[in-house]
Amino acid sequence: MIATPVKTPTLDAFLQLPETEPASEYINNRITQKIMPKGKHSFLQYEICNVVNQITKAKKIAYAFPELRCTFDGRSIVPDIAVFEWQNIPFLADGEIPDNFNIAPDWIIEILSPDQNANKVIGKILHSLQHGCKLGWFLDPSDRSILTFQPNQQPILMVNSDRLPSLEIIPLALTVEALFSWLKMES
Fold this sequence. Notes:
187 residues, alpha+beta
C-alpha cells in the first residue's frame, strides 16, 4: 500500500477557512487549535487587558486586545493578549479597527493553561520578538511566575515582588504577586 502524502495548506488557504472555537493557528505550515481557556486563564486575560486599557485607551497610548489574530512572516497566531501601541494599530481610513492585523503585536502576553505545551507557547513569543515585538510575558499560574522576554536579551524569570516590565510608553507599575493576587475574588 502506498501512503498518500497529506497536503499542507498554505497560509492563504488557512486564512480562508472558517474560524474555530477555540481559535486555530497556522505555525510552521501546520494548523493547530488552541486549548479552551479555563477559569484562571480567562480571568487573568480579562484583568490584564482591563488594567492596560484603563491606563492607555483614553490617552491613545496603546490598546490590549484579547484573542486577536495576528498574521505575519508566514504565521497566523492568536495571542492570549496582543498589545499594540496606538500608532501601530492599522486603523482603516474611517478610523475603525480592521478585522485583519498583519503585523506582530508590540507586546505579546501568553498564559499557560493546564495541558498546554509550554515550548510551543514560548515559540510564539520568540517568533513575535524576531518580527518587531518589543516585549513578551509568559505567565504560569500554577507556580505564580512570569517569564519576560525582550529582544536580544535572555528571558528573565520573575516572581513575588519583582516589578514587571511593560512597554516604555505604558506607565504600568505591577509586581508578579500583585498580578496573581487578582485571582482571589474575595467579597
